[in-house]
Amino acid sequence: MTTSTSTATILFVDDEPNVTDALKRALRREPYEILTATSGAAALKILEGQYVDVVVSDEQMPGLPGSVFLSMVRKQFPHTIRMILSGQASLEAAVRAINEGQVHRFFLKPCNPTDLAFTIQQALSYKRLEEKCRRLLREYQRQAAVLAKFNRDLLRLDTEEPVAEVVKESDDEKEVTDLLAEIEIAIQGR
149 and 83 in one domain? Predict the structure, then answer.
């Protein structure tokens, strides 16, 4: 599961094919694989068959509004970044998208292609940091479990000399601490 910008996959969802075509043209110079769907149902089928890094969905689509679709994406594909694009933004739709779909960004149509490209780049950077943090946390937890077992085994030894524990911050713990600080800065910069 790679999110490097050279292999990132972006899915545009809009019931108007001319909008998805325009978005594809706007990002044609970006190093992304770009997929399109004309409904939330069609987009879910794509997501079930292929890993997607970022989904940008229209809000007002027949059958399944974008905010409801993105809420489903959040539950089924939680590591996919979600953005919404709306021509008629209502406060209710924006609040629903933010609360239920936990969207990364809310764009108004017509959106500036440069802003869209920049926001997608930022989202992918944030996603890479999250993935690295999750990986380091798993590694830290694995190492902590090994150390805990080692300490339990040492305490069971029947020796005359007391066993002293030495606690030293490992390089991985420092990297996790540094990553958490970077993520905090990135979240505050949103």
Answer: no
Angstrom distance (rounded) from CA 94 to CA 103: 9
Sorted by sequence, the CB contacts under 8 Å of residue 40 that are 6+ apart come out as 13, 57, 61, 63, 64, 65, 66, 68, 69, 72
Rounded Cα distance between 77 and 62, Å, is 22
Percent of the chain with pLDDT over 70: 76
E strand spans, 128-168: none
pLDDT digits (tens, 9 = 90+) for 75-121: 999 999 999 888 776 667 666 666 666 777 777 778 888 888 899 99
What token pair was written down for 12? 């545009």
Same domain, 54 and 19: yes
β-strand partners of 63: none
Q: Total structural domains in the chain?
A: 2
